[in-house]
């Protein structure tokens, strides 16, 4: 079954809807809540786009004005709450994302698809640097996660666990790929090296 075409596709819109299930909030409070709960590690958040997202959610009937508030001399703030239609949209959208794999385009995959433009020795140097950076990142994430486990229910840390697993899996794959280049066991590596050293494109590359 094809995925339903949604009125909004920005992941930040889904994060806003889920956040508003906790209670009505103004946009600044939504952003602060997302950051406090660590959702900025999995969803790109900035104030400008968040205000636009809230306006679009209101336009499509997924959120509505619940109240307005003013503190001191500050400008009046509009407080939004999620509507019944917004709850239905949240449930359907989140269920679809969890159940149906979709093709994504990470920038590292793009770089891998084009690495033939660099000499194999240079690629090895660069990937060795990447592995070191991934190991540092994994160690940092693992330490932070262990500390968070002490005060935050695991339910709210699942995406951090997933991020750590992906970092570790990527580092393992890169190490294996590096070993193939180093040993010359990767199919086509000789032609790849020959091309960069002679400028001649091997027949198998055409």
TrEMBL record:
<feature type="domain" description="Transcription regulator PadR N-terminal">
    <location>
        <begin position="16"/>
        <end position="91"/>
    </location>
</feature>
<dbReference type="InterPro" id="IPR036390">
    <property type="entry name" value="WH_DNA-bd_sf"/>
</dbReference>
<dbReference type="InterPro" id="IPR052509">
    <property type="entry name" value="Metal_resp_DNA-bind_regulator"/>
</dbReference>
<protein>
    <submittedName>
        <fullName>PadR family transcriptional regulator</fullName>
    </submittedName>
</protein>
<dbReference type="Pfam" id="PF03551">
    <property type="entry name" value="PadR"/>
</dbReference>
<dbReference type="InterPro" id="IPR036388">
    <property type="entry name" value="WH-like_DNA-bd_sf"/>
</dbReference>
<dbReference type="InterPro" id="IPR005149">
    <property type="entry name" value="Tscrpt_reg_PadR_N"/>
</dbReference>
């Amino acid at each position: 079954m094809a995925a339903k075409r949604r009125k909004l596709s920005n992941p930040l819109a889904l994060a806003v809807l889920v956040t508003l299930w906790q209670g009505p909030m103004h946009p600044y409070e939504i952003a602060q809540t997302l950051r406090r709960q660590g959702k900025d590690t999995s969803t790109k958040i900035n104030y400008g786009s968040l205000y636009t997202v809230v306006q679009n959610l209101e336009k499509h009937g997924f959120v509505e004005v619940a109240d307005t508030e003013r503190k001191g001399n500050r400008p009046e703030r509009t407080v939004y709450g999620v509507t019944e239609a917004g709850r239905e949209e949240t449930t359907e959208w989140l269920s679809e994302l969890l159940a149906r794999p979709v093709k994504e385009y990470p920038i590292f995959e793009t770089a891998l698809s084009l690495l033939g433009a660099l000499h194999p020795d240079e690629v090895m140097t660069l990937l060795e640097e990447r592995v070191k950076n991934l190991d540092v990142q994994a160690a940092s994430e693992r330490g932070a996660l262990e500390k968070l486990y002490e005060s935050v229910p695991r339910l709210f840390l699942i995406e951090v666990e997933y991020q750590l697993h992906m970092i570790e899996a990527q580092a393992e794959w890169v190490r294996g790929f590096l070993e193939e280049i180093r040993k010359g066991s990767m199919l086509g590596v000789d032609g790849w090296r020959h091309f960069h050293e002679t400028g001649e494109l091997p027949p198998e590359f055409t």
